[in-house]
Amino acid sequence: MTDLFSPITLGGVTLPNRVVLSPMCQYSAVEGVANDWHVIHLGRYAASGLGLIITEATHVSREGRITPGCLGLYTDAQEAALKGIVASLKRHGKSPVGTQLAHAGRKGSAEEPWRGGKALAGAEAWQTLSASALPHDTGWHVPKAMDEADIARVTREFADSAKRADRAGFDLVELHGAHGYLLHQFASPHSNKRTDKYGGSFENRMRFPLQVFDAVRAVWPKAKALGMRITGSDWTPGEGLTPEDAVALAKILKDRGCDFVDVTGGGVSMQQKIALGPGYQVPFAAEVKKRTGIPTMAVGMITDPHQAQAIVAEGRADMVALARAMLYDPLWTWHAADALGASVFTPNPYLRGRAPTAPIPREVAPQQVKGVAAR
Fold it and tell me: What percentage of the chain exceeds 70 in pLDDT?
């Protein structure tokens, strides 16, 4: 068994392997409700043998959405739609299913990317929130600096959405604390210029993200898994979050009952200078894993099976999360298993599509194996 295709347990959830579908916004919901597109998009991965499927950034309030097309989990209709999709994924696959709970903060009230991704104007726009009244960029809305009542309300919204996620059948919740969204806006000195107990020092800037984590931890079942996507670097010279901050936050989260962290970077400042390249964010995950021991997920242009195997085998991360590579090839996990000589779950209707030379999972009956070879 290869390292990449070995199981791992997060909290009370066992992943059959270490390949994760990273959350990818589809901007295709209607009033936050999942629809046929989400069935099509996620259904492609039910057959792929992934270790974990994380749906997409799912927002905890209407004002917390990035765009009008973003998924939500704050109404009964949204909960019911996702419950049906989760049940279908589990009925036809063996991958645990997670959701990423998020609030866009000052990056909300925006167009869908294919419309330009700029700030909405007129009747379409809504008031955004942030740590401080600083717009994301020139031409963007000036957000309201959250007062303590706003902070308490948004904290409750995260907890309420977590309860809905549990009822919808999700096995795992990842809190989105990165990519320049609300929790990251409090954490980063770029966007947080507060002078109260929620601003200034590292401890104060992390107070709101940790408050949200604690509120969700209190309502999320221990038998499931709870983690956070955190920032390894703001990718800005002179100011901003660093790998040291990621290590410090991961240690605190681990002590508070966090089951894993997903380490990424960037998104909070338009002054960022990102050094793109294969595995460019992996060193942040490696540093966090080495110094905290918390189960760690790596992201960032991970596209090749041997690259992914090396990341796990060399102890740089416990899991790898793929996004664009999975959009391009929804059966990436099949092809990685073939390349590495491993086996992976394949639903019976798809067995004829597996290469005759590919290892067949043990649960496949001998007559099915024969059928594959015969075709």
Answer: 94
Q: Characterize 203-219 residue by residue with b for buried, 16 or more Cβ atoms within 10 angstroms of its Cβ, and e for exposed.
A: ebbbbbbbbbbebbbee
Q: DSSP for 17-29?
A: SSEEE--------
Which residue segment(s) compose the domain that 366 sits in?
349-375
Would the pLDDT of 322 be above 50? Answer: yes
**Number of folded domains in the chain?**
2
* Residue 304 Cα to chain centre, angstroms: 20
276-302 tens-digit pLDDT: 899 999 999 999 999 999 999 999 999
CATH number of the structural domain spanning residue 79: 3.20.20.70
- Please check whether residue 247 lies inside any domain of the structure: yes
Strand blocks (E) in the chain = 8-10, 13-15, 19-21, 52-59, 71-72, 97-102, 129-130, 144-145, 172-176, 225-233, 260-265, 296-298, 319-322
> Residues 197, 202, 203, CA angle at the centre, nearest 5°?
55
Tokens of 295: 């189960």
Whether 279 and 311 share a structural domain: yes
Residue 128 inside a domain? The answer is yes
**Catalytically active residues, by annotation:** 181
* Structure tokens that stand for 290 in this block: 């080495």
Which pair of tokens denotes residue 140? 């963007």
Residue 2 lies in a domain: no
The answer to the question of residue 83 being in a domain is yes
Quote the CA–CA distance of 314 and 320 in Å, as a whole number.
Answer: 13
Residue in 292, 296, 225 with CA at minimum distance from that of residue 264? 296
Say whether both 311 and 368 belong to one domain: no
pTM of the entire structure?
0.93
What average pLDDT does this structure show over 89-97?
A: 96
Closest CA to 55 of 370, 326, 343, 342: 326
Q: Which two tokens stand for residue 152?
A: 């308490």
Q: What is the pLDDT of residues 202-236, one digit of tens each?
A: 999 999 999 999 999 999 999 999 999 999 999 99
